[in-house]
Design goal:
The complex is a heterotrimer. By secondary structure, chain A is mostly helical. Chain A contains 14 helices and no strands. The relative contact order of chain A is 0.14. The C terminus of chain A is likely disordered. In chain B, 29% of the residues lie in helices and 18% in strands. In chain B, strands 1-10-9-8 form a 4-stranded mixed sheet, with no helix packed on it. Chain B has a 4-stranded antiparallel sheet with strand order 4-5-7-6, covered by helices on one side. In chain B, strands 11, 12, 14 and 18 form a 4-stranded antiparallel sheet that branches. In chain B, a hairpin with a 5-residue loop joins strand 4 and strand 5. By secondary structure, chain C is mainly α. Chain C has 15 helices and no strands. The longest helix of chain C is centred in the middle third of the chain and has 36 residues. Chain C is globular, with a radius of gyration of 24 Å. Classes of the chains: A mainly alpha, B alpha+beta, C mainly alpha.
Chain lengths: 296, 579, 320
């Protein structure tokens, strides 16, 4: 059976993309992560259809009911269905992660491309800016920003996004510096193609792989940051549920000890999503690394 | 090495799992089965909890009696509903015209350095407290106008280098001369926690400017007072240490040492269970529920101490919608307050219909706004706020996020108002921004309808609410009929309320004032002056070894009940000291 | 070498000014009267409107932004960071009080995280795709994914309350004289929990770094020479894999401080993190600015040191 598969594979031309897919699919944890994350994303996207109850509907008579057939993960103090809140919270937490990372990766591509391609003074300025922001304690500045702007989902995204760009900027710049000297780029330049065209069509695609890996880890980090902000009362404000604020509203010993269905589900959701995303990132890194050995 | 590290990691993960599924094993301590002795015992170390921050705030130069300083500083009286507990004064007389209050001081009271406390110290303390150089809440000025010459002194006017209205008659008698008749003078000024007595003989030798600016070393190294304990040390961010004052006028206190330990509430609960703390006050109901099953911990409850309300800081919101009592009544009908008390307050609270709930001042014919969504809708329809208009109205609720129960109430109301058909939004804003909002200077102007707050005046109309001190001319602030943004600006009942208030002022006797208070209460009830009154219980969790604790319910919440009698606290089995 | 160090120091200077500019920008964004931040509200009360205006003028608050920036900077460099809004100690005094405990906690956590993380990473790299690799990977990621407040509270509940191994909180046992053991006893829980996150980071970093070097030519050569695997790993691969860690580790100091906010608050550890959180709650912008400034300067200095160390350890490095 295994021999058949191998034989079948060899019939195809071995493109880098295909090689990457094959390597990725061999990374067991990454595949597992992908599966789990896919389920979580699907649940989040179709939350309104999947959720058996409304996430905000209160039924005060259903005070902290343990899991039952109608309420799969029980109910909270206000009689809201924990499962429904959990999957709606997934939308918020995952999108905070995605958008925040989207913001800073965009900044990073712009700045990194400018710095890497144009070099000289602009490069110097941008790289010093990178050094500055990397030196400043991120968490404290994020707290500062959110407390000035006021806690909300968008401000969390913004604050995390504003502080995350230095590392990927460095990455993009480094990548572009090495790509700039590649033959095909030199060729494009000598053909007289406009610079922005060279960057867009020829240089940036080479940056994508490491950036995707970085962004993957970034999403996991942003989800955790949101949870931390929620603990400090600066995350996504209620009544909107996020995994972070579901957990932080459970931080009394009474709930920790006696009402586990209020904190275990969001805790596991955070853990699973962060784990899966990190595993995927790991797998992607192995798969996309051009020097990567096909070991194992 | 590797294995050890792995073990550590496993341990951490295991710990996490354990928190979820560990059985509740409350190991019974050896002492739990016995009955405590009835006699006060001497010795031991008392560990007291203090939650607030002490970053830049040096507790002591604020010259105010609070949970940290109450161990060493005392004032003349404690105020209770219509009466008082004598502390450094034994009593007072009021002249016929109500303008002169003669205060009789306790004799034989000693400061911690052995010097005697006299009338000189009283005058000095008030002059220090109202020193023009001290940062007051801005409003202190209004309060200061009560006593003759005090305002001029506070303003630092030319020649006003003393408060002329405070006269020393002899060593143990002081007269306070008022500018006008004021029945709130006693509860709001003389018997108020913000006026601890200071040692003149020590302070007058120090640099006045430094003293007043709070930069003097005196506040850090060794402030003294007349209280049952004397200051030993303050370690910022950790604790304040006190030692027993054997010559205390109220008799030698029990514990030998007191540590006021700083910790966040989550940590404090564990410290209490572990014996590192003896009392945690103003505990969350959630933790009280758990502690009820712990045989080593007593749960003490003072009912209905704290207020809990929503108020409308901007009566212009919604084009005057909230000036209509029926609109406010509708919102009150929409809120399941009893459900909130049961589910969120864990039963440690009570739905209040009256400002003076449970006291003699309560309106005899209260309207009780019980939860009824249909009634709420009908009322709104009645005043023209029909379903289609509600659907267009953006209802903004703001809440200060420091308190979980408060946020839960906002969440409840969000759902309730959404069900009424309003487009509802909850906005979390901090205290500083909230003040900005009120003044229309918020980042979003005054664009909100209700703010949820819970600093309550309890039920005692005689007690000034400290945060409001001075912004109030007339004692009990909700009844203040002078301020233009209050309910009475728009109410047909305003003149009636003003008249009632004048009647109250004309009397000094509580019996005579009662009917007027009752009538005022009825008006407030109908006007729904501030909707959503809920009485919050005040909970203290204490170890079994701490004895002699008595919660006095008559005292206002901000003179935290426990502080009244700390001198009487003692430790059972003092030799078996905990950490 | 000396030339490199000088170059490296020179390049830190604009970074330092960049930091101060960001801090100043935050300061400008923060609500409140800047005069109150400088003088303290107490002092302002004693002053008349004219005096206040004169003070504003003389402190340069009416100047354009760059003028204000320069005067603020010159005061900050001299150590004058102004007063907190509530008065009392100056910001500088507060920072001095709190920096010691923070450094102790951070240094311990840093050491613990390296001691735990690096060996884990090595094992993972040597036994790539074995069960131990998977197990440690899962553990490392699990550590990354548990919010630290939960870890802190959970650990306190288990180790302090249920098992009674460690004290709950604080710097030392209150009311007893200082003892080294007592301090260590109090330090263990907060520092291990703070370290947990970074141990995971180091493990993963070491793993990938090791994997990379083990495929490099010189390692293969060493192997081909018939050196024992142990020697290959320790002498060749490990050394080269860990070198870049110096830089990465020094950059993590800022994150470590960020992580200490929650840990210090829950464990009542009177350091900069706790101060920073309390300052946030109380909107004490002057204190927050002081913390950001001092923390960034610390990170900057440690980066500088790390780069120099790196250059010493690996002479191939040259400044580009």
């Amino acid at each position: 059976m295994a021999n058949d598969l191998q034989a079948e594979q060899q019939l195809f031309v071995d493109t880098p993309a295909r090689r990457a897919v094959r390597r990725f699919s061999r990374h067991r944890l990454a595949m597992l992560g992908l599966g789990v994350l896919l389920i979580m994303v699907l649940l989040a996207v179709f939350a309104p259809a999947v959720a058996p109850h409304s996430p905000t509907k209160q039924e005060l008579s259903l005070y902290r009911k343990p899991p039952t057939q109608t309420h799969w993960l029980g109910t909270d103090s206000l009689g809201r269905d924990v499962f429904s809140r959990l999957i709606h919270a997934g939308r918020v937490s995952l999108s905070v992660g995605l958008v925040a990372v989207g913001i800073y990766e965009t900044i990073a591509i712009l700045l990194g491309a400018i710095a890497g391609y144009y070099g000289s003074k602009l490069d110097w300025i941008i790289m010093r800016a990178v050094d500055v922001v990397m030196t400043i304690p991120t968490m404290i500045v994020i707290i500062f920003l959110v407390s000035i702007l006021g806690p909300s989902m968008y401000n969390s995204m913004l604050a995390i996004g504003i502080m995350g760009w230095p590392e990927p900027t460095r990455l993009v710049r480094g990548q572009i510096l090495s790509l700039r000297e590649m033959d095909y780029v030199t060729a494009a330049r000598s053909l007289g193609l406009p610079t922005h065209r060279i960057i867009l069509r020829h240089v940036l695609p080479g940056v994508v792989a490491p950036l995707v890996v970085h962004a993957t880890f970034g999403v996991a980090g942003a989800i955790l940051l949101e949870a931390g902000l929620s603990f400090l009362g600066l995350g996504v404000p209620p009544p909107t549920a996020s995994w972070g604020n579901m957990m932080s509203s459970a931080q009394t010993l009474n709930i920790l000890e006696r009402v586990p269905w209020l904190w275990v589900p969001p805790g596991i959701a955070i853990m699973l999503s962060v784990l899966s995303i990190n595993f995927i990132g790991d797998g992607l890194r192995d798969a996309l690394d051009p020097r990567g050995m096909e070991t194992g | 090495m590797k294995r050890l590290l792995l073990a550590v990691n496993l341990l951490i993960v295991a710990a996490l799992l354990l928190t979820g599924c560990a059985p509740v094993d409350t190991a019974p301590a050896a002492t739990t089965m016995q009955e405590p002795p009835t006699e006060r015992q001497y010795g031991g170390t008392l560990n007291f909890w203090q939650p607030s921050w002490d970053g830049s705030k040096d507790w002591f130069h604020h010259i105010k009696r609070d949970e940290v300083t109450t161990w060493m500083w005392e004032e003349l009286f404690f105020t209770t509903t219509g009466s008082f507990i004598p502390v450094l004064a034994t009593g007072y007389d009021v002249s016929e015209d109500g303008l002169i209050y003669t205060v009789h001081l306790r004799e034989g009271v000693k400061f911690h350095d052995g010097e005697e406390f006299t009338a000189e110290d009283v005058k000095y303390s008030f002059e220090l407290k109202y020193d023009p150089g001290i940062l007051p809440p801005e409003a202190l000025k209004a309060e200061a106008e009560r006593v003759e010459g005090l305002f001029a002194y506070k303003q630092g006017e030319e020649g006003a280098d003393e408060i002329t209205g405070i006269r020393i008659v002899d060593d143990y008698t002081v007269e306070f001369v008022l500018t006008e008749r004021d029945p709130s003078f006693f509860p709001g000024f003389l018997g108020y926690v913000e006026h601890p007595m200071m040692p003149k003989h020590v302070l007058e030798t120090l640099d006045r400017d430094e003293l007043v600016a709070g930069t003097s070393d005196y506040w850090v190294t060794g402030p003294i007072g007349t209280g049952p304990y004397q200051f030993v040390e303050h370690v910022p961010g950790q604790y304040v240490e006190y030692a027993r004052f054997d010559d205390y006028w109220g008799g030698k206190p029990g514990p030998e040492r007191v540590f006021v330990k700083f910790a966040p509430i989550e940590t404090a609960i564990i410290m209490l269970e572990k014996g590192e703390l003896d009392i945690v006050w103003e505990a969350p109901p959630e933790e009280a529920v758990r502690m009820m099953d712990n045989p080593d911990i007593d749960v003490l409850v003072a009912d209905n101490v704290m207020g809990f309300w929503i108020q409308t800081p901007n009566w212009h919101a919604g084009n005057g919608l909230w000036q209509n009592p029926k609109a406010k009544q509708a919102l009150l009908y929409a809120a399941d307050r009893q459900g909130f008390v049961d589910n969120v307050m864990q039963g440690f609270g009570v739905v209040r219909h009256s400002w003076f709930h449970g006291t003699r001042f309560e309106c005899p014919t209260l309207i009780e706004f019980e939860y009824d969504l249909d009634k709420a809708k009908a009322l709104l329809d009645e005043i023209g706020m029909t379903a289609d208009k509600r659907a267009d109205y953006q209802l903004e609720l703001t809440v200060y996020p420091g308190n979980k129960m408060r946020v839960d109430y906002a969440v409840m109301l969000h759902e309730a108002y959404t069900q009424l058909g309003f487009k509802t939004n909850v906005d979390l804003i901090d205290a500083a921004s909230w003040a900005d909002y009120r003044n229309g200077k918020g980042p979003r102007g005054t664009e909100f309808d209700f703010a949820i707050a819970n600093w309550g005046p309890g039920t005692n109309p005689y007690v000034l609410e400290p945060y409001m001190v001075g912004t109030v001319d007339l004692g009990y602030w909700p009844l203040d009929v002078e301020r233009d943004y209050h309910w009475n600006e728009y109410s047909p009942n305003a003149d009636k309320a003003k008249e009632l208030w004048a009647n109250i002022f004309a009397e000094t006797d509580i019996e005579a004032q009662t009917p007027y208070f009752q009538e005022l209460d009825c008006i407030l009830n109908e006007e729904v002056f501030i909707p959503h009154l809920i009485g919050e219980s005040w909970i203290a969790l204490k170890s079994k070894r701490l004895q002699g604790v008595d919660l006095d319910l008559d005292v206002s919440v901000y003179i935290v009940p426990q502080l009244v009698d700390i001198a009487n606290w003692w430790l059972w089995d003092p030799d078996a000291d905990s950490q | 070498m000396t030339k490199y160090i000088i170059q490296r120091v020179i390049v830190s200077i604009p970074i330092f000014f960049g930091i101060t500019m960001i801090v100043f920008a935050l300061y400008a964004l923060a609500p409140g009267d800047p005069l109150a931040m400088l003088l303290g509200e107490r002092a302002m009360l004693e002053m008349t409107a004219e005096e206040l205006e004169a003070a504003r003028e003389s402190l340069g608050l009416n100047d354009p932004w760059w003028g204000r920036y320069i005067s603020w900077l010159s005061r900050a460099i001299r150590g004058d960071l102004g007063y907190p809004l509530t008065g009392g100690y100056t910001v500088m005094e507060l920072l001095q009080q709190r920096i010691g405990p923070t450094l102790l906690l951070m240094a311990t956590a840093f050491a613990v995280s390296l001691l735990a993380g690096v060996p884990m990473g090595i094992v993972m790299a040597l036994k790539q795709y074995s069960w131990i690799d998977y197990l440690v990977t899962v553990l490392a990621f699990a550590q990354l994914s548990i919010p630290s407040f939960f870890l802190a509270l959970g650990a306190m509940y288990v180790f302090s309350l249920k098992l009674d191994i460690f004290p709950t909180s604080g710097l030392q046992t209150i009311g007893e004289p200082f003892s080294l053991w007592d301090r260590i006893h109090h330090l263990i829980m907060p520092s291990f929990i703070l370290a947990a996150y970074f141990a995971g980071v180091w493990a993963r970093y070491t793993r990938s770094s090791m994997l990379e070097t083990m495929h490099l030519e010189f390692v293969t050569t060493a192997r081909a020479k018939g050196l024992r695997e142990r020697v290959v790993v320790v002498r060749h691969a490990l050394r080269n894999a860990l070198l870049p860690m110096i830089t990465v580790a020094s950059l993590s100091l800022g994150q470590l401080l960020g992580g200490s906010i929650i840990i210090e608050t829950i464990f009542q550890w009177p350091g900069l993190g706790m101060l920073g959180w309390q300052a946030t709650l109380n909107r004490e912008y002057p204190i927050l600015m002081g913390i950001i400034l001092i923390a960034s300067t610390m990170v900057l200095a440690s980066n500088l040191l790390a780069d120099i160390l790196y250059a010493v350890a690996d002479p191939r490095i040259r400044y580009d």
